[in-house]
């Protein structure tokens, strides 16, 4: 199911003027605070009425100002996952989950409640009330409630922002399963590069109410001009496959024919996943390095060099695993004689990648 969005709307401190078409899967709205992400989601939900625009899900129109069409929120068949779970405190988990089904039209395609409960791992929580749940458990219940409304589209407005790192690591795999196992498109808001790398089928990068880039996560995250955190968020996104779990606690991955070693990943042999390699965790060498503790050395050629306003530069290296980015100084670029087409080696520390940068099982993305 595809999503088509066209919006024009004036706010006191922001002017929205944008359009994008998104394929099935997870479409991430990515940008700094104040770029218009939440306003877009609320316009799709019907909580904000834009001056002009059109939104359609797989051809089904939610509104079109040119035709005078405006469906009220309760008729749009949307599931909305907020930053906090926003569960009804007086209802049990079971009652919260099934609350939304009363608003689903007769004959609508429904997800199996048993499948949703199993997928989210919340079967043991059904008789509890929200006050007895952790933050991560509340968000899993909120995801389940959204799914059981039989939605045509799921909206997720920074659903991990209120969670600590441990709870984020708990919830991310469930969004990955949602992307891979449920045939409902998801419009997902975040300013986290790690969430983009792991979840996005398509990324819409926003600045001041406009789309400045639209494409795969690997392309958007390689551009420091569009990332909310600038060069600190720049990194490569690689698709890899589990080859072997070694007895010393490392997992060996196949990355385009090259081996990468990471701390043990809880996936089966031959399963595929995404990993994000921040540019600041990569160093470059003009010769194959020896005598290093780093296990991951990828041979490639320099593709592009992008100098920053300060002393730094982002170097893109084309390797069999894909493009790897390195954040280095311009002095290092000159000292190594780096230029497009020159052979070089990208060195990545085995323990440099944070757990949130290592994805779970990947299918169909």
Automatic annotation (TrEMBL):
One of its GO terms (molecular function) is ABC-type transporter activity. Residues 291-357 form the Mop domain. Keywords: ATP-binding, Cell inner membrane, Cell membrane, Hydrolase, Membrane, Molybdenum, Nucleotide-binding, Translocase, Transport. InterPro entries: AAA+_ATPase, ABC_transporter-like_ATP-bd, ABC_transporter-like_CS, Mo/tungstate-bd_C_term_dom, ModC_ABC_ATP-bd, Molybdenum_import_ModC, Mop_domain, P-loop_NTPase. PROSITE patterns: ABC_TRANSPORTER_1, ABC_TRANSPORTER_2, MOP. Pfam families: ABC_tran (PF00005), TOBE (PF03459). Its EC number is 3.6.3.25. It comes from the Bacteria. GO terms for cellular component: membrane. NCBIfam families: modC_ABC. This is Sulfate/thiosulfate import ATP-binding protein CysA. It comes from Ruegeria atlantica. The lineage of its organism: Bacteria, Pseudomonadati, Pseudomonadota, Alphaproteobacteria, Rhodobacterales.
